[in-house]
Amino acid sequence: MCGEEDDLGPSLEERLFEAFLVHARLLTEEIARNRSESGSVSAYADRLMGDALNRARRDAEAAGLDERAAIFAVQPLVFARLAGFLASHLSLHEDPLRKVMEAMMHGYGEAERLGAMGHDHGDGEEHHH
Predict the structure, then answer these.
(1) For residues 97 and 114, what is the distance between their CA atoms, to the nearest angstrom?
(2) Distance from the Cα of residue 5 to its chain's centroid
(3) Cα–Cα dist 10/103, whole Å
């Protein structure tokens, strides 16, 4: 019936995107708090991660509702493609594929960890997703 969909609340995609926004904010705040020595490779990696995450968030937020889901869905594929491209230029002695897979699983684990943390959506009520 007309209007029934609105009564059901946000779609799964909208809820997942909102969780991403919360987790992205938490992770960028965590990265900022844990800044390593400014000239270190670790500090560079944290800055690059934060920059890439913020770019992905901004692009998805700027998209219209109709194209947001498609943009959000393609982002991990683009970053995986980039990771594969970069890793293909490393020495096989460095075992780049294993390192890329470990980093991907680490990122997946960060999302799970952040999802398990209570957080505030600005409404004064802390809860879990």
Answers:
(1) 26
(2) 28
(3) 31
Using only the alpha carbons of the chain, give its radius of gyration.
Answer: 18
- pLDDT digit string, tens, across residues 29-88: 988 887 766 778 888 898 899 999 999 999 999 998 889 999 999 999 999 999 999 999
Residue 117 to residue 128: CA distance in whole angstroms:
6
Put simply, whether the predicted model's pTM sits higher than 0.70 gets the answer yes
The full set of domain ranges for the chain reads 12-118
Find tokens 């460095």 and name the residue: 94
Which stretches does DSSP call E strand in 67-125?
119-120
H or E stretch at 58: helix 41-62
Query: What six digits make up the tokens of 109?
Result: 């684990």
